[in-house]
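PROTEIN ENTRY
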Amino acid sequence: EIHAEVQLKNYGKFLEEYTSQLKRIEDALDDSVGDVWDFSLDPIALKLLPYEQSSLLELIKTENKVLNKVITVYAALCCEIKKLKYEAETKFYNGLLFYGEGATDSSMVEGDCQIQMGRYVSFLQELSCFVTRCYEVVVNVVHQLAVLYTSNK
């Protein structure tokens, strides 16, 4: 009977220590369980997107030739819009957002504003061409939608 009480106390002490150890491990892991990817600390990332080997034209195959043409046109326009969006985000957003940041009027030497604007002119020329291309794509989308809507075929 005394031996059983000693074993029971030892077992209780073991469970308490084991529970506290598990709690410490859980607390240590809790901070990192939700962080799958930390951009500032991890230099390498895995891109887990499936690679599609078939082209857009192979995916659009129906028995109706007219429907194939219509779907192909809209798919091409969607791809063009996606490319334009990516180009705007990577090439133009930061230049427009941060132009003139970091310099105050008191810290700029005479002529620095003119030099900064001169360097910005080529960026503005590219932006103008980009906006013109976006306008052409939007007009094309509106024309295609108008033709599809008014068509009796």
